[in-house]
Write a structure and sequence with these properties.
The complex is a heterodimer.
Chain A: H1 2-9, H2 12-17, H3 23-35, H4 37-56, E1 59-60, H5 63-74, H6 78-83, H7 100-170, E2 174-181, E3 189-195, E4 201-209, E5 217-225, E6 228-235, E7 245-248, E8 256-263, E9 275-280
Antiparallel strand pairs in A: 2-3, 2-9, 3-4, 4-7, 5-6, 5-8, 8-9
Chain B: H1 11-19, H2 23-44, H3 48-65, H4 76-93, H5 95-103, H6 106-116, E1 120-121, H7 123-134, H8 137-148, H9 153-160, H10 164-182
Helix pairs in contact in B: 1-2, 2-3, 2-4, 3-4, 8-10, 9-10
The chains are: A alpha+beta, B mainly alpha.
């Protein structure tokens, strides 16, 4: 006990309470206190005295300071407090480290966008194919329509020619001259209508069947007057004609009519070996 | 603060609340001990502004290190007081603090003293100071240095040109006087 007493009286316990001892000395005091109740009782007495002393010596902080300090603990939670500590600050490796959720959302959005794009491309392709088909159909229809229009106009053309032919046949005003094929074109034939009163000459494409000409040639109608050929004008094939009936030059008198194939615009004298039809009145 | 009722808890409740990081602990500790801790700090670092910052640091450290407090090694206040004292002494000895102190001219010191007057002194403080003053001057010097001025007892012995054992004895005698007064 004497040893404990001198230990207490050495003043080491006061220094312990005042935080004046090294870590090793602290451990030895704590060991003594754990072993001897007298030592721990002495420490408590010193602590209580110093605590009372400190309380009696207090300097009350201002209300503002109190508000400021307590606000740090009550404002949100302990993380606010921890921030002020000397703990290492966590700095994200890259700036967007905290935006992982955002990135995740964005990647979902990206996948959705890609899917949408694929669907769009497929439907666009399909629609384009349909559109092409429709275009082809339209083209076909318009071709058919053109053909139909051509057919109709040809029918009208023929019809008007036929009507005219019938009318002229019935009438006594007109004499019909039949031109028959010659040696090179035995199957060719043509009718020429000659008005008895005013001597006008008409031809009717409906009553023309001549060998085809090329683009640089056309037909020329001649009248044989006292053994001499007189030109009555030129005419093209029925594909160039705008009306079924075409009026040629009038002639007072003639013994025969003939048609030759001449260069475009006609010739002064008929090319005899190019004669396709001929007929006497 | 002025309108809030002050909180006071038993030491056991305080320790438990502190260890489970309940904010009521810090509120109670502040209400019960902020004055005592500021008193300790203010005698080591006399600049009010610095002392107030240190008080704040002290509470932050108490909060964050509460789990390391071991009640078997001493009372909670002793631990808190040493936290405050160590922070204040570290500040006093830090380079930037020494430098800023050197730069203070007389004018600033006058302002500083004026500022000091804003602090609310505990009326009882004067009585205690008298008590310390009434101690034998030998005891008073040593306790002043070790308790108020942040000296270690080794430094105090060197400063006073006394054997270490004598310094220890005088600290003990001074505290025994206080014990007679308070216990």
């Amino acid at each position: 006990m004497e040893e404990v007493k001198s230990y207490i009286e050495s003043g080491i316990l006061e220094l312990y309470v005042l935080g004046q001892l090294s870590a090793e000395e602290n451990i030895s005091v704590e060991a003594m206190a754990a072993q001897y109740p007298l030592v721990s009782a002495e420490i408590s007495a010193i602590e209580i005295a110093m605590e009372a002393y400190a309380l009696e010596n207090a300097i009350e902080p201002s209300d503002e300071l109190g508000d400021k300090i307590l606000a740090r603990f009550t404002s949100t939670n302990e993380t606010v407090v921890n921030k002020t500590q000397d703990e290492p600050k966590i700095i994200p490796l890259y700036e967007g480290a905290n935006d992982d959720r955002k990135i995740k959302t964005l990647s979902y959005a990206l996948v959705a966008c890609i899917a949408l794009l694929v669907v769009s491309v497929v439907s666009l392709y399909t629609l384009n194919n349909k559109l092409n088909t429709a275009h082809e159909q339209i083209a076909n229809l318009s071709t058919e329509k053109e053909q139909f229009v051509r057919t109709v106009s040809k029918l009208k053309f023929d019809n008007s020619g036929m009507e005219n032919r019938i009318a002229m046949t019935k009438s006594n005003e007109w004499s019909t001259v039949k031109l028959a094929g010659v040696k090179d074109s035995p199957n060719a034939e043509m009718l020429v209508y000659w008005n008895k009163t005013n001597k006008n000459i008409l031809i009717n494409y409906n009553a023309i069947d001549l060998p085809k000409t090329d683009k640089s040639h056309e037909y020329q109608l001649w009248a044989l007057v006292d053994g001499k050929p007189v030109s009555l004008g030129v005419f093209g094939g029925d594909e160039t004609a705008t009306a079924a009936i075409k009026q040629m030059d009038a002639i007072e008198k003639a013994q025969a009519f003939a048609v030759t194939i001449e260069p475009m615009g006609g010739s002064v004298n008929p090319t005899m070996d190019k004669m396709v039809v001929m007929g006497a009145i | 603060m002025a309108t809030t009722k002050k909180i006071s808890l038993s030491e056991e409740d305080l320790v438990n609340a502190l260890k489970r990081q309940d904010t009521i602990a810090i509120k109670a500790l502040y209400d019960m001990y902020s004055g005592a801790l500021l008193g300790v700090i203010s005698r080591i670092v006399i600049q009010t502004e610095v002392a107030e910052d240190l008080l704040q640091e002290t509470f932050v450290k108490i909060w964050n290190s509460g789990s390391s407090y071991d009640s078997s090694k001493g009372r909670l206040f002793t631990w808190m007081m040493n936290v405050a004292r160590n922070l204040a002494i570290d500040k006093l000895r830090s380079k930037d603090f020494k430098n800023s102190n050197k730069n203070q001219d007389i004018e600033n010191n006058v302002d500083f003293i004026d500022e000091q007057r804003k602090v609310n002194f505990n009326a009882d403080t004067l009585g205690i100071k008298d008590l310390v003053t009434n101690l034998k001057p030998d005891f008073k010097d040593v306790l002043d240095m070790v308790y108020f001025k942040g000296y270690t007892h080794v430094e105090a012995a060197e400063e006073l040109n006394l054997p270490l054992g004598t310094v220890k004895t005088r600290v003990r005698m001074a505290i025994l006087e206080l014990r007679k007064k308070f216990n």
